[in-house]
Specification:
single chain; about 160 residues; 2 domains; three-stranded antiparallel β-sheet; three-stranded mixed β-sheet; about 20% strand; elongated; binds zinc ion
Length: about 160
């Protein structure tokens, strides 16, 4: 790595740290010529797949939209912001690591439902009812019944 101050080509690595998420490496370097110090970051570059909507149109993946729908589903639910952020991060990681160039919007919906199911059952139902529109009544009943089964032996309904 070339020194940004004197352009000398040889720099010494003083310290290497991997980020908490494990997706980037930070290196503290020292120029052997001018002794100035600087930091470099190294990260894997993966592109988010393009989202294909139900009508076939394509749109860029929007993390704000993802965050918005999760927050809407989780409104007034006892789930910490950290847990929501972690869920969003996992969804993004799954999309990135799929290596696909395109993803259908339903697939993102499924990923969101997976996360909500783990985070909060009420939020899961809220999201699922909007996302699937529950045109099929039986489908809705199945979802409710599933939650009922999971609740048995657990906390009483509030
Ligand atoms: Zn230098």
């Amino acid at each position: 790595m070339r020194c940004p101050f004197c352009q000398h080509e040889d720099t010494q690595v003083l310290d290497t740290r991997v980020s908490e998420e494990g997706d980037s490496v930070r290196r503290r370097r020292r120029c052997v010529a001018c002794d100035k110090r600087f930091t470099t970051y190294e990260r894997v570059e993966l592109a988010m797949p393009v989202v294909v909507k139900k009508n076939g149109s394509r749109t860029e993946f929007d993390p704000k939209k993802l965050q918005g729908s999760l927050q809407l589903a989780l409104r007034k639910r006892p789930v910490s912001a950290e847990a929501v952020d972690a869920a969003i991060h996992r969804i993004e990681q799954q999309l990135l690591s799929s290596g696909k160039r395109e993803v259908v919007s339903e697939q993102i919906g499924e990923l969101v439902m997976n996360e909500l199911q783990k985070l909060d059952k009420i939020a899961y139902i809220r999201f699922a009812s909007v996302y699937k529109s529950f045109e099929d009544v039986a489908e809705f009943q199945d979802a409710i019944a599933e939650i009922g089964r999971e609740r048995k032996g657990g906390k009483p309904r509030s």
